[in-house]
From TrEMBL:
Entry protein name: SsrA-binding protein
An MF annotation (GO) of this entry: RNA binding
Record localization: Cytoplasm
Gene expressing this chain: smpB
Organism lineage string: Bacteria, Bacillati, Actinomycetota, Actinomycetes, Pseudonocardiales
Entries under PANTHER family matching the protein: SSRA-BINDING PROTEIN (PTHR30308:SF2), TMRNA-BINDING COMPONENT OF TRANS-TRANSLATION TAGGING COMPLEX (PTHR30308)
Biological function: Required for rescue of stalled ribosomes mediated by trans-translation. Binds to transfer-messenger RNA (tmRNA), required for stable association of tmRNA with ribosomes. tmRNA and SmpB together mimic tRNA shape, replacing the anticodon stem-loop with SmpB. tmRNA is encoded by the ssrA gene; the 2 termini fold to resemble tRNA(Ala) and it encodes a 'tag peptide', a short internal open reading frame. During trans-translation Ala-aminoacylated tmRNA acts like a tRNA, entering the A-site of stalled ribosomes, displacing the stalled mRNA.
Length: 158
């Protein structure tokens, strides 16, 4: 049986890029039980309130909601349980240092299948203040206006 290729996105946290300045990203595996994987294959996950913590040298994903598998029986999983993330020891030590030193957060950006395995894109992020968010929105709008003007000029219209 050939392995799946590519990256099939299950869920993404679009709000994270608005609320945080992304400094660095990591790819981590997730420890799951059988019914969780089946529910993820159906696309039933939410990263809205999710965050990661480092406890006793291990990284844990908290607040991730994976809906119960509708065909599951007594073996079904708890939707908001804490899930262990799989990272290399060096990456974990780097994350411990960064989160302790300067008030940075670990925020999941997206969850996806990569070659049949569930992965989470984890970001080392710093929270934006309200005026930073307004500046980001203004910059995005200005870039959009510039792109429109360039497009109109390329078509010969003013």
């Amino acid at each position: 049986m050939p392995k799946e290729r590519g990256r099939q996105v299950i869920a993404s946290n679009r709000r994270a890029r608005h609320d945080y300045t992304i400094l660095d990203t990591y790819e981590a595996g997730v420890v799951l039980v059988g019914t969780e994987v089946k529910s993820l294959r159906a696309g039933r996950a939410s990263l809205v309130d999710a965050f990661a913590t480092v406890d006793d040298g291990e990284v844990w994903l908290r607040g991730l909601h994976i809906a119960e598998y509708e065909r599951g029986t007594w073996t079904n999983h708890e939707p908001r349980r804490h899930r262990k993330l799989l990272l290399h020891r060096g990456e974990i030590l780097r994350l411990i240092g960064k989160t302790k030193e300067s008030g940075l957060s670990l925020v999941p950006l997206s969850m996806y299948f990569k070659d049949g395995k569930v992965k989470v894109e984890l970001a080392l992020a710093k929270g934006k203040r309200e005026y930073d968010k307004r500046q980001s929105i203004a910059k995005r709008d200005a870039d959009r206006e510039i792109a429109k003007a360039i497009g109109r000029a390329a078509k010969g219209r003013q």
